[in-house]
Write a structure and sequence with these properties.
heterodimer, A: Ribosomal Protein S5, domain 2, five-stranded antiparallel beta sheet, 4 helices, 10 strands, B: Ribosomal Protein S5, domain 2, six-stranded mixed beta sheet, four-stranded antiparallel beta sheet
């Protein structure tokens, strides 16, 4: 493993990216018929479909909360989504990812509007190539918006990591396998809150700072892609040229009122 | 959650059927528009996305090395799994869907297996020790009825485009799966005595009985499955078989040209 160089002498990574380059990301909102909201994301070779149902009745019933909706995320991988076939069914890794994404989404959903209900988010990884939790969370908030569920902001998510001793953005499969550290971040641009954070490997505090800054910058870019996907699905009407962003980058809450 | 269909809708479907019509404008014996897209998943050795009306499924095949069954030491293996995941319909509940998914995957498997579509002997590397295992996995993304046919069609399209990844295991060059037949299933439901091909979700929920007929390209029967608590008369079954020959041939054309 040691002899594989992930960054060449010109500073380029194996797939030709610079250290702070993202892989190509394409998001499409409203791709399923039955789900109340849906989104499909291609992120590098990752292909992920997200469907949202709800607010709807809670199953099992004892989970319901009198003051708000609960958010139930199910992240799952198709058997053919990885090189060696994955046995169908939920493993420990999928359960953990479901939990942290669910907690991230709970923070942005205005859940007290729908007491005693459940908002169910199904994240289906159809092809996996490192970074599926970030891509899944990114698509999930687009699907929530497509479902018309009130949220305070979209959550973009992206990882930064360390390969060959260097901090880089958005690890691909080989970098993830033999890299030294990985830091997936879910960031709410409107509030500056971090709603998903994990890390494994080895960072000095300075390296962490750099990696986090890189991931955050990427999140701001991905946030634009999320908004574009929703605008493509629900085109702005005439006289609505203002794309809803103030000079400070915040989403303008008074869009509807100002017309 | 049980899907609830309003009485009005049920009456509507029955009234239309009496006049030979259906809610989506089709005739009773007509298949829906279908599209097939191949090689959509890079990690799979073959894959296909099939849209049959609003039903949307994704099939992927993984081909790996394994040990053969002791009673078939010189044959490769086929394993078919279908998952009815909750993303596909609001009524899909993991606990309750299990038997339905098992029946679906077994009917698809039977069609592929009984038609001898795959030459299993050619998938043997070392008798009794090493063979190619073909894992066919079917995932439903959007459900609007007739998963039997969508899953079979998706599986056939996947297998016809699949390659055995021999080079990854140091076993020579990759090669296409050794195939001969092309089985196709067609599924009918009976509503108030009327037989309909390729039912939608609403038609399935209203149906008294269901019949799946899988035939090969020579017009021979390879698998059948009757479902639901209603029943068929012999003449209804033979009429279904006649329709299946005709419909199967046009589906085969779509798969070949896709």
């Amino acid at each position: 493993m040691e002899d594989i160089k992930l960054i060449d002498d010109e500073g380029k990574r194996k797939d030709g990216r610079a250290p702070d380059d993202l892989r190509d990301i394409r998001i499409k909102a409203g791709v399923l018929q039955n789900a109340d909201g849906s989104a499909y994301i291609e992120w590098g070779k990752n292909k992920i479909m997200v469907g949202v149902y709800g607010p709807r009745e809670v199953f099992p019933k004892h989970l319901q909360r009198p003051d708000r909706a609960i958010v139930q995320v199910n992240y799952s991988m198709s058997a053919f989504s990885v090189d060696q076939r994955k046995k169908p069914g939920q493993g420990r890794r999928e359960n953990e990812i479901s939990k942290i994404i669910s907690e991230a989404l709970e923070k942005i959903i205005i859940s007290n509007q729908f007491p005693r209900t459940s908002i169910d988010v199904f994240i289906e990884v159809l092809e996996a190539s490192a970074g599926t939790r970030c891509a899944g969370l990114t698509a999930a908030s687009v699907a929530l918006a497509d479902a018309g569920i009130p949220i305070i902001d979209l959550v973009p998510s992206c990882a930064a990591g360390k390969i060959d001793g260097q901090i880089v953005l958005d690890l691909d499969k080989i970098e993830d396998n033999i890299g030294e550290a990985d830091l997936p971040v879910g960031y709410v641009p409107k509030t500056g809150e971090v709603v998903l954070l994990q890390m494994d490997g080895h960072f000095t505090p300075e390296e962490f700072e750099k990696a986090f800054g890189m991931a955050k910058e990427a999140c701001l870019h991905i946030h634009k892609l999320q908004r574009e996907a929703l605008i493509a699905r629900y085109p702005l009407e005439a006289g609505d040229e203002n794309d809803g962003e103030n000079a400070d980058g915040n989403v303008d809450d008074n869009r509807g009122a100002s017309q | 959650m049980k899907e609830i269909i309003p009485e009005l809708k049920i009456e509507h479907i029955k009234r239309l059927a009496a006049g030979g019509n259906r809610a989506d404008g089709r005739s009773l014996g007509q298949f829906r528009e279908m599209s097939i897209e191949r090689d959509v998943i890079g990690t799979a050795e073959g894959s296909a996305r099939v849209k049959l009306g609003k039903t949307d499924i994704l099939v992927g095949v993984k081909i790996e090395l394994g040990a053969p069954y002791p009673n078939h030491p010189d044959e490769g293996m086929l394993k078919t799994t279908l998952e009815l995941r909750q993303i596909a319909h609001h009524s899909f509940d993991p606990g309750q869907m299990k038997n339905r998914a098992i029946e679906l995957s077994r009917v698809v498997d039977r069609g592929v297996r009984e038609s001898r579509m795959i030459d299993m002997k050619k998938l043997c590397i070392e008798p009794g020790k090493k063979v190619w295992m073909v894992y066919l996995d079917i995932q439903v993304l959007d459900y609007d009825g007739n998963l039997f046919d969508a899953a079979t069609i998706g599986s056939i399209a996947t297998l016809t485009g699949a390659r055995v990844p021999a080079s990854a295991f140091g076993l020579g060059e990759d090669f296409p799966l050794p195939l001969s037949e092309m089985p196709i299933s067609t599924t009918f439901v009976k509503i108030d005595g009327h037989i309909m091909l390729d039912p939608t979700a609403t038609e399935e929920a209203v149906a008294d009985a269901r019949l799946t007929v899988t035939m090969d390209s020579q017009g021979n029967l390879r698998a059948m499955q009757k479902g639901l608590s209603g029943a068929f008369y012999y003449e209804e079954i033979t009429t279904a078989i006649e329709n299946s020959i005709k419909t199967g041939n046009s589906i085969r054309e779509i798969i070949r040209s896709g």
